[in-house]
Amino acid sequence: MKRYRTRRPIGALLALTAAGGLLLTGCTGGGDADQGTKESAADSRGDSAPMPAPDRPRGEGEQRYDGGTATGEAGDTGGSPEIAPDPDHLSTFALDVDTASYGYARRTLSEGRLPDPSTVRPEEFVNSFRQDYDRPDGDGFTVTVDGARTDEEDWSLVRVGLATRSAEQEGERPPAALTFVIDISGSMAEPGRLDLAKESLGTMTDRLRDDDSVAIVTFSDEAETVLPMTRLGDRRGRVHDAIDSLEPTDSTNLGAGVETGYDTAVEGRREGATNRVVLVSDALANTGDTDADAILERIADERREHGITLFGVGVGSDYGDALMERLADKGDGHTAYVSDTEDAREVFSEQLPRHIELTARDAKAQVAFDPETVAEFRLVGYDNRQVADEDFRDDRVDGGEVGPGHTVTALYAVRVRPGADGHLATATVRWLDPRTRAPHEESGDVETGALADSVWGADRGLRVTATAAYFADALRAPYDGDGGALPGAPRLGELAERAGALADRTEDPDVGQLAEAVRQADRLT
Of 297, 294, 260, which is closest to residue 277 (Cα–Cα)? Predict the structure, then answer.
């Protein structure tokens, strides 16, 4: 299958989209495989003039696309605001590299329970798997757009893939100042919680550099700074002693933990370093300030004033998924979930030390579908990451923070107009340089002729993406065994067979775990 990885200057992109009738305007709005040739990035410098918005009144009855489930005909919402009526074919969202939802679903299924649909976020299922997108030579993104037709007439799945440089390409990253906020409440005594966190933190401490710094805050009914910000060097023993001393005690005052953690991070903040709070908890607040909005506002204040980001690590069979995700989103960070030693090793010993550096701040993506070829579309997931189309190039509006070695995948269900041929969609990612805050953009597009004949005959990455998305889709709604809401959705039993065959062909253990999770879900329905 041919992929289109076109990168063109923004001026040329405007000329093309204007000719094609697209409304892409200035005011609208993990594996490290490197392959293929890299092209120079087109970027928008800080002194560039913004692109003008079209001087066109919105027609009567026109509505903006707000994400969600697509039903009905294009131009006729049938009472649903989620359809993108012609000619408004824009979709805009903040980038998200969270994976906690998928990890927690696997844990729940392994215990013989179906996950609560409210905890299933399809984008986190999709982004849990390695992709082979081309990667840039330096900071920024590459954009890959491809897709394949489904078994449902006129419907296709279109994949937008964004990738940062390989983690192995990093030069001299800035030092890190990490404040670990550790939940030591009574519930953390369950095997696989505090014991796993202690072991992992100890291993990670040995992998950090001498010029990195670590602080440790614990919380149960109250919060305490066990170790102030300490430059590692020859002081690793002090950090290990503090970790070894952690023992579970009483209830969970998450608000106090977050507040003390950020106080400690601010006090130990280092200029020129990556300052981050790492929250390790089951996120089941039951003492003190349990109001999520109050906790979230404190994180937002510290992020704006000091640039301190949050990495949330969820643990436990009972887990406050929604609160942890909201905390990470408000803290310009991301979440992961650990259920066993292998998960913990990957998160603490691989992901965190390797991804301390940020390569992009406030990253947003906008996909412009060609109204000449696309009748309707739906973004799969990213429900709480939607951005108003007109805010795409408003750099005051929060996006997502992304580091090296990351890929971000967005999947769309797209109904192509019968017999339509030609340009299908253009995807653009916009981000700010972490140091200079200069804005940059990169684009890629896809033609109808590039769509593979079948999702199940597409390349390995797209098949894995489709399998993960179909799986999440089935778990999100009451499942009747006849397929999910996405076009071409197979029955769970068939999906399990396809995932198993894909795991056998690729010999990828991550895909093997996905196949087993689908089989477990099939047995429980």
Answer: 260
Beta-strand relationship, 423-432 and 360-369 = antiparallel
Which candidate, 505, 355, 308, 412, places its Cα nearest to that of 90? Answer: 412
> Residue 332: which pLDDT band, with cuts at 50, 70 and 90?
confident
The amino acid occupying position 227 is: L
Q: Which of 388, 397, 282, 276 is nearest to 334 (CA)?
A: 276
Which residues sit opposite 407 in a β-bridge?
163
Which class for 296: exposed (0-12), middle (13-18), buried (19 or more C-beta within 10 A)? middle
CA distance 473 to 50: 38
**Over residues 486-508, mean pLDDT:** 95
The amino acid present at 60, given as its one-letter code, is: E
Q: Helices 100-110 and 509-524 sit at what angle, rounded to 10 degrees?
A: 50
Q: How many Å apart are CA 312 and CA 98, to the nearest integer? A: 9
Do residues 252 and 218 make contact, with C-beta atoms less than 8 angstroms apart? no
Within a 13 Å sphere around the CA of 125, how many CA atoms are in the beta-carbon half? 27
Comparing CA positions, the residue from 408, 370, 411, 371 lying closest to residue 150 is 411
Residue with tokens 């696989």: 192
Q: Is 206 helix (H, G, I), strand (E, B) or coil?
A: helix
Angle at 74 between CA 479 and CA 7, to 5 degrees: 95
The pLDDT of residue 475 is above 80: yes
User: Which pairing describes strands 309-314 and 274-281: parallel, antiparallel, or unpaired?
Assistant: parallel
Q: Parallel, antiparallel, or unpaired for β 274-281 and 176-183? A: parallel
Backbone angles phi, psi at 382, to 5 degrees: 60, 30
Measured in whole angstroms, how far is the alpha carbon of residue 112 from the centre of its chain?
27
Reported as half-sphere exposure (CB side, CA atoms, 13 A), residue 177 has a value of 21
- Maximum average pLDDT range among 155-164, 321-330, 431-440: 155-164
pLDDT of the residue at 86: 46
3-state secondary structure of 341: helix
Q: Which residue has the tokens 């301190």?
A: 308
Residue 445 buriedness (CB in 10 A; 0-12 / 13-18 / 19+)? buried
What rounded mean pLDDT belongs to the chain? 81
User: Whole-prediction pTM value?
Assistant: 0.79
The model's pLDDT over 78-127, given as tens digits with 9 standing for 90+, comes to 333 344 444 479 999 999 889 999 999 999 999 999 999 999 999 999 99
* Cβ neighbours, 10 Å, residue 64: 16
Contacts of residue 65, Cβ cutoff 8 Å, sequence gap at least 6:
82, 83, 84, 88, 89, 90, 91, 377, 389
